[in-house]
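Justification of resources, computational component.

The compute hours requested in this renewal are based largely on the per-chain cost of generating structure records like the one below. Each record pairs the submitted sequence with a full structure-token output. That output is archived, and it is also reused by downstream analysis tasks.
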Amino acid sequence: MGLIPGGGGTKELMVRLKDPRKVFELIGMAKVSSSADDAKKLGLLSRDAGISMNTERLVADAKALALSLVPTLLARAPPRKDIKVGGTPVLAMLEIGLWSMHKGGYITDYDVVVGKKLAGILSGGKLSAESEVSEQYLLDLEREAFLSCAEIRGRRRGCSIC
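The structure output for this chain reads:
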């Protein structure tokens, strides 16, 4: 589609994997899992995520899980403010990777545009060095990049509202 994950997907991968290169590769190469266990290894599912093997039990298992989460949701844990991002050194590293892939003919000009937006999120924006940021900070970067990519994509396809 030519967009980055929205709705907290990029932020959540940063929290789980703690490695911007791995997150960049996972999103940038549109990696998908072949199984629930593979999804856990990739970081698409948390390590403690439940797995329903029996298709007859999917709805019942989902309902039981949802009900078990109610106390957690009511408690409302404070948003995290300790997510490490690498700043401009990480941004430079990711952009060099993009440049190499583009020069090698592996990605298009538009892929570079989207990749730079993704690199901006994973590095923490315009921070000069490694820093700890809040979930909301990353969500704001993610939303800005997603909307920017959607607007660019819409203009390229002749979208009248973009």
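The CA atoms of residues 12 and 135 lie 9 Å apart. The mean pLDDT is 87.
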